[in-house]
Amino acid sequence: MRSRLALAVHARLEKRFPEKRLFIRSDTETRFIRLRPSHQLLGWGVATALVGWSIISTAILLMDSIGAGNFRAQAQRDQIVYEQRLNALSEERDARATEAVAAQERFNAALEQISVMQSELLSVEDRRRELETGLDVVQSTLRETMQEVKQSRTELAALSEEDGATSATQTAEADTTVDLLATALAETAAERDQIAADAQFALDNAAETQLELRLLQERNDDIFRQLEDAMTVSVEPLDKMFRAAGMNPDNMISQIRRGYSGSGGPLTPLAFSTRGGGPDPDAARANGILNRLDEINLYRIAAEKAPFDVPVKAAYRFTSGFGQRWGRLHAGTDFAAPIGTPIYATADGVVTSAGWSSGYGRLIKIQHEFGIETRYAHLSAMQVKVGQRVSRGERIGDMGNSGRSTGPHLHYEVRVGGTPVNPMTYIRAGQDVF
Predict the structure, then answer these.
(1) What is the pLDDT of residue 165?
(2) pLDDT of 264 above 50
(3) Which of 83, 223, 241, 337 has the most CB atoms in a 10 Å sphere around its CB?
(4) Residue 269 near residue 290 (C-beta atoms within 8 A)
(5) Which of 190-194, 233-237, 305-309, 359-363 has the lowest mean pLDDT?
(6) Residue pair 387/351 in contact by the 8 Å Cβ criterion
(7) ∠ CA 194-195-201 to the nearest 5 degrees?
(8) Angle, vertex CA 211, rays to CA 102 and CA 98, nearest 5
(9) Under 8 Å CB-to-CB from 432, ≥6 apart: which residues?
(10) Are strands 333-336 and 389-390 parallel, antiparallel or unpaired?
(11) Could you report the per-residue pLDDT of 321-350, keeping only the tens digit for each?
(12) Distance between alpha carbon 370 and the CA centroid of its chain, in Å?
């Protein structure tokens, strides 16, 4: 049974792959190589496998290259969008801060005007009371004088004719006195009416000023609320980025604030006079906003000092990630690209090593803030020296194939306190913001 099956298979192979002979002729003899159907089938299978493997490998390489290009382009677009958003927030922050200061100045000017008007109102009220008191005295004196005049006229009527001349003189003097008192009384009443009118005008003006002051306070509240919302929206993504990278934002901000040496410095708190009263709530809110702006500025400085950027800007593909490989720890991430591809620093720092290092080949080490170190290995050229200070995005070398390397690529490491960590943790955290 088995021989029949073998004969049937052999017959089918003979039809598809008939036996062939390959002749090899020399000067003295001729030899041939017999190509059996099984040998031809084996050769056809090997050739088919090689062609299929080549097609699949080419497709994988093309997909990796396209994916890496898309990843880099998306990272660049995200970075541009984030920078535009930071610039817009910065401009809005400056405009809102200017509006807040101007509104506070208008508020203080209105308070001063109200204080002056209240003082004038009190002064007018005092004068009115004084005039009312004087008017009462004048009226009392006038009544007494009128009674004395009547009594004098009665006495004058009873006097004799020889006293006529003297009585006429006294009557004229009394009439003159009465006229003077009446004139003084009329002037005092007019002045009293003018003071009352001034007092009413001051009260009406004070009510208008109070309304304007209330509208100004509502405008201040609206400005403060918009600024506070903008600060919250700006700080939360930055805080999330640092926490995603395993960094404590509070400790990081404290460290940056202690060692701050940039231009401008932390924002100075506002101070407004309270005229001996309690703390001004508007000043407290303005200082709270300034503190948040200061925090955003410190976050920006910290983002430049931590390795959130990608070391390769050109098209690349990932060839090996962080983790165990062949029983050993692969302490970094590999980016493959042609020899000479530019390599960039992923954060501000100081070059601590730039030279040959055994299996790393040409190696650059950069020390950053927060105890972080980055390493760039297998380079073909180095453009920095030991002790040089570099900035985030500055070109430091070219990709190569030096050291123990199976092809042109960059071996990129991130170490915290000397312990290697996954570089993609920082790169992915930065992609959520930049």
Answers:
(1) 52
(2) no
(3) 241
(4) yes
(5) 233-237
(6) yes
(7) 90
(8) 10
(9) 237, 240, 241, 244
(10) unpaired
(11) 999 888 889 999 999 999 999 999 999 999
(12) 21
Report pLDDT for 394.
96
**Which of 137-141, 196-200, 244-248, 377-381: highest mean pLDDT?**
377-381
Distances (CA, A) of 305 to 70, 203, 221, 298: 26, 61, 36, 11
* Pairing status of strand 328-330 against strand 395-399: unpaired
pLDDT tens-digit profile of 39-87? 777 877 888 898 989 899 888 888 877 766 666 777 677 778 777 877 8
Residue pair 202/117 in contact by the 8 Å Cβ criterion: yes
pLDDT at 348: 93
Q: Which of 426, 370, 369 is nearest to 244 (CA)?
A: 426
Supply angle C-alpha 315, 316, 319, rounded to 5: 170
Q: What residue type is assigned to position 180 of the chain?
A: L
Check if the beta carbon of residue 108 is closer than 8 Å to that of residue 272: yes
The answer to whether the beta carbons of residues 52 and 61 sit under 8 Å apart is: no
Bigger pLDDT: 316 or 74?
Answer: 316
User: Does the model's pTM come out above 0.90?
Assistant: no
What is the b/e burial string over 249-284, where b = at least 16 CB atoms within 10 angstroms of the residue's CB?
Answer: beebbebbeeeeeeeeeebeebebeeeeeeebebbe
In this prediction, residue 370 carries a pLDDT of 86
Which tokens hold the place of 351? Answer: 């070059």
Could you say which DSSP state residue 267 is in?
P
The pLDDT of residue 219 is above 70: yes
Q: Looking at the chain, how many residues does it have?
A: 434
C-beta neighbour count of 107 within 10 angstroms: 18
Cα separation, 336 vs 75, in Å, equals: 17
CA 390/CA 377 separation, integer angstroms:
17
How many angstroms separate the Cα of 416 from the Cα of each of 238, 244, 422, 432?
20, 15, 10, 21
Closest CA to 433 of 247, 260, 334, 300: 300
What token pair was written down for 243? 């926490």
Confidence of residue 265 (pLDDT cuts 50, 70, 90): very low
Token pair 């006294």 in the structure block, residue: 170
- Cβ neighbours for 184, distance < 8 A, ≥ 6 positions apart: 138
Burial of 349 (0-12, 13-18, 19+ CB in 10 A): buried
* DSSP character at residue 270: P
